């Protein structure tokens, strides 16, 4: 395994000028419109999502669950272009800790999403580990902790995925720590990063999920800055989170209770996170994601407008 040099600390980067602010590009995603699945009657139609995300002042979007937006690149390119939108990334779910037996099935899904993302001019593929309990029902699907063998499979196959996606599609994978997956807490995120090649695997830091699992986003940026390739901006309601943790509530029902809240009402504070990210002096997407599945179809647009205004007040 390639040794990992630690990132420059923030104290070493304080001389950077505020102009690095311009290197953070803000966007939003179907998730902020209550979209979790390719097709669900409780979700807004894709046309309404595109109309409203553009009306909210965002320029960049993610593809969301594959099949929600049109998968024909020509159709999607026309629909996004006429609304002034561009695609930053696609998203895939993987279960690579299960070993080589799942590779072919995983690659079949990844290649479809990566091809569409590439055709839309995106440069990233967000990789989310599979859930150890069902995000809708809470049913436990497998143990929440990985064995040493499963950790080896997870890290080695993620490196393979990074290599294949880069070579075939020109995309960088950014792995997304997520509640109710095996890459969640500070300990598990550090173990994953220390076990993977920095040249092949970067991180999508989701500020809400990391806080949900007890992590400190600013500390993570300070420690592993060179591995931060992408951001998801999200906050959690600390009071609801305390109840969720105490009760062991699964992620899906926790979202239905409102654990992910509208900024700036929750934690972590996004201003310090953005300032820490800016001092890395690299180009970063910062995509707003407020998990709201399911939600009133009229709720997302005013929240998105207020959130965009709040982020402008933070300087982005």
Approximately how much beta-strand content do the residues carry?
Answer: 5-15%
Give the CATH level 1 class: Alpha Beta
Structural class category? alpha/beta
Question: Poorly predicted ranges (pLDDT <50, ≥5 residues)?
Answer: 1-20
Round the mean pLDDT to the nearest integer and report it. Answer: 93
The named CATH superfamily: Divalent-metal-dependent TIM barrel enzymes
Task: Give the count of helical stretches.
Answer: 11
How many distinct folded domains?
1
Helix content: 25-40%
How are the strands of the biggest sheet laid out side by side? Answer: 1-2-3-4-5-6-7-10
What is the molecular shape? Answer: globular
Number of DSSP-assigned strands: 10
CA gyration radius, whole angstroms: 18 Å
Describe it for me?
By secondary structure, the protein is of the alpha/beta class. It contains eleven helices and ten strands. The chain has one domain: Divalent-metal-dependent TIM barrel enzymes (TIM Barrel, Alpha-Beta Barrel), CATH 3.20.20. The chain is globular and about 50 Å long. The chain starts with 23 loop residues before the first strand and ends with a helix. This is Xylose isomerase-like TIM barrel domain-containing protein. Pfam families: AP_endonuc_2.
Which characteristics define this entry?
316 residues, alpha/beta, TIM Barrel, eight-stranded parallel barrel, two-stranded antiparallel sheet, 11 helices, 15% strand, globular, disordered N terminus, IolE/XylAMocC-like, Xyl_isomerase-like_TIM-brl
């Amino acid at each position: 395994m390639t040794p990992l040099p630690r990132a420059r600390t923030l104290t070493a980067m304080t001389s950077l000028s505020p102009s690095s602010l311009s290197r953070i590009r803000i966007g939003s995603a179907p998730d902020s419109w209550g979209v979790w699945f390719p097709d669900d009657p409780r979700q807004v139609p894709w046309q309404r999502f595109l109309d409203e995300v553009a009306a909210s002042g965002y320029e960049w979007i993610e593809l969301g669950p594959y099949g929600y937006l049109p998968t024909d690149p020509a159709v999607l390119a026309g629909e996004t272009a006429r609304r002034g939108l561009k695609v930053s990334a696609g998203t895939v779910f993987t279960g690579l800790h299960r070993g080589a037996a799942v590779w072919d099935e995983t690659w079949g899904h990844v290649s479809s999403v990566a091809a569409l993302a590439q055709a839309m001019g995106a440069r990233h593929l967000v990789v989310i580990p599979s859930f150890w309990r069902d995000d809708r029902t809470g049913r436990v699907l497998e143990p929440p902790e990985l064995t040493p063998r499963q950790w080896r499979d997870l890290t080695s196959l993620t490196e393979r995925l990074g290599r294949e996606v880069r070579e075939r599609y020109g995309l960088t994978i950014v792995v997304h720590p997520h509640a109710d997956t095996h890459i969640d807490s500070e300990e598990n995120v550090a173990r994953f990063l220390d076990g993977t090649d920095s040249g092949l695997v970067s991180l999508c830091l989701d500020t809400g999920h990391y806080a949900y699992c007890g992590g400190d986003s600013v500390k993570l940026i300070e420690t592993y800055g060179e591995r931060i390739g992408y951001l998801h901006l999200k906050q959690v309601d600390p009071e609801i989170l305390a109840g969720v943790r105490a009760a062991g509530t699964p992620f899906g029902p926790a979202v239905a209770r409102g654990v992910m809240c509208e900024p700036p009402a929750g934690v972590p504070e996004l201003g310090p996170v953005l300032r820490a990210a800016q001092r890395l002096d690299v180009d970063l997407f910062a995509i707003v994601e407020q998990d709201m599945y399911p939600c009133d179809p009229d709720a997302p647009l005013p929240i998105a407008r207020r959130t965009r205004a709040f982020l402008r007040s933070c300087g982005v």
